[in-house]
Amino acid sequence: MVLVVPDQDQRASSSFKAAQFNKLKKEKSMRSRTLALGVVLCLSAAGVVRADWPQWRGPERSGVSKESGLLKQWPAGGPKLLWQVNDLGDGFSTPVVVGSRIYMMSNRGLDNEYVQAISTADGKVIWTTRVGNVGNPEQNPRYPKARSTPTVDGDVLYALGSDGDLACVETKSGKIRWTKNLRKEFGGQPGEWAYAESPLVDGDVVVVTPGGASATMAALNKKTGAVIWKSAVPGGDAAGYASAIIVQAAGRKQYVQLLSKGLVGVDAKTGQFLWRYKDVAKGPAQYFTPVAFGDYVYGGALGVGGGTVRLKANGDGVTAEQVYFVRGLPNGIGGAVIVGGYLYGTEVGQKLVAVEFATGKIVWQQENFGWGSVVAADGMLYLHLVDGTYVLVEATPTGYREKGRFMPPAAPQHSKNGDFAEAAFSYPVIANGRLYIRDLGTIWVYDIKAK
Q: In 16-154, which ranges are continuous DSSP H helix?
């Protein structure tokens, strides 16, 4: 059954049973405890968990950290600032943190987009490696910059430049092992604002989204860059600005991605196109990295709302059955997270929204909150608003409970080009008891461990 819900107070299809959803939560929790996922975990006698943040939206690409023992309330002015470094280069890229190093992409001018490693101790630059030029410099509004987040996998990382230059780089030295260009070698078609996705590493493959008719998505051998498969998605969508995730549903592993014409799933082994969900491409641009839970996938339509589909096996294919679409659900560039069966995120109307994931019902919303990116850790939501403000909110369905708010000191100036001002688009990063914040060429590092 397909049910479209036009108003926020209406419920989803009754076939999405709460008992079934609770069973999925339990199964997912058990799986999460058995998967290492390449994360460095340190467990103290007090039960405090620390973890690296090796890729876009964290260890599982869900925006949720497994860390514990973090502050539940920030002091006035924010947590303790450990250090701040300016002039690291321009860009909207979110950093990643592995061990004693921070990795991120930046640019200086339009002909030097690079990936760099800096020290977690003091922000000192360890190495810098040029990847290529900045893509689509005549974009509108005109803010051409580095956008993608690197993905760290063992002793290498994968960096995608905004002009489609994909590089496998040694984390120790910054030496490039191999490169590909998504435009030239795959006939890639990015959107107006160039490439912004973060490469997905899964086992022996790295997955990217060139866009276009011949290789809408592609899987490469992560050691050599050799092509394993190209997926020609019907319609030949241009690439969006989201990043692919792994979904195990309907009896098969899939890569799910938001493209310019909708949310799609392809078979992880062969690249076979499986399904499409068009409703989440209603907005003016496709930024929202999908969120998955069991057989269910959520996507946000920028400026409109959000919807969830249930994936079901259908012969050799997969059917995406809409469960609900609700206006005003999380849909902004800042994504959403699932905590305890509830979805949290901002929407373009400047509201922070808490949603019962099973039904799409809004349980509370904070008006005039702002628009920003969100991650979760230790029962709390960390939100980076586009004006640069940071807010700590309890992740609870019982109501809005703010636990701290501050503006980092000496923030960079945001320019304005036309009707839309430049904004702070980088996501929060939580790694090993610290909060890492980036805004253009500046990084701040805060101690968020509970004493």
A: 18-34
